[in-house]
Amino acid sequence: MPIYQYKAIKDGCAYCRGGFETMQSMRDKPLTQCPQCGAKVKKCPSLCSGFTPLLSNGNLRDKGFTKLKNRGNGTFEKLT
Ligand SMILES: [Zn+2]
Q1: Mean pLDDT, to the nearest integer, of 47-63?
Q2: Cβ proximity of 39 and 6 under 8 Å
Q3: Contact 5, 45 (CB under 8 A)
Q4: Which one of 3, 5, 37, 69 is at 20 to 30 Å from 56 when CA atoms are compared?
């Protein structure tokens, strides 16, 4: 089943404020409310900003990505 990401449109609780993931069947209707607090949520088409639990360094490495951190002086630090 696909995993969808939602994020509170405004306010929200600790669960939805930073975004959360839920597994839903394609047939299920998209959530409109946080299951925890009932705040209005929106579906994120891609990763919500600041919300990257699926893309931890370990996962990135598993997928063959290399994560680089800009050190700010034109050089990059390899994190994976
Ligand atoms: Zn909530």
Answers
A1: 57
A2: no
A3: no
A4: 37
What is the DSSP annotation of the chain?
Answer: --EEEEEESSS--TTTTT-EEEE--TTSPPP-B-TTT--BEEEESSPPTT--GGG-HHHHHHTT---EEE-SSS-EEE--
Identify whether the C-beta of residue 3 lies closer than 8 Å to the C-beta of residue 23: yes
Distance 57 CA to ligand 1 centre (A): 27
Q: What is the pTM of this model?
A: 0.54
16: left (phi over 0), alpha (psi -120 to 50) or beta: alpha
- 35 CA to centre of ligand 1 in angstroms: 7
Beta-bridge mates of residue 42:
7
Tokens 């050089």, residue located:
75
**Mean pLDDT (whole number) for 16-35:** 91
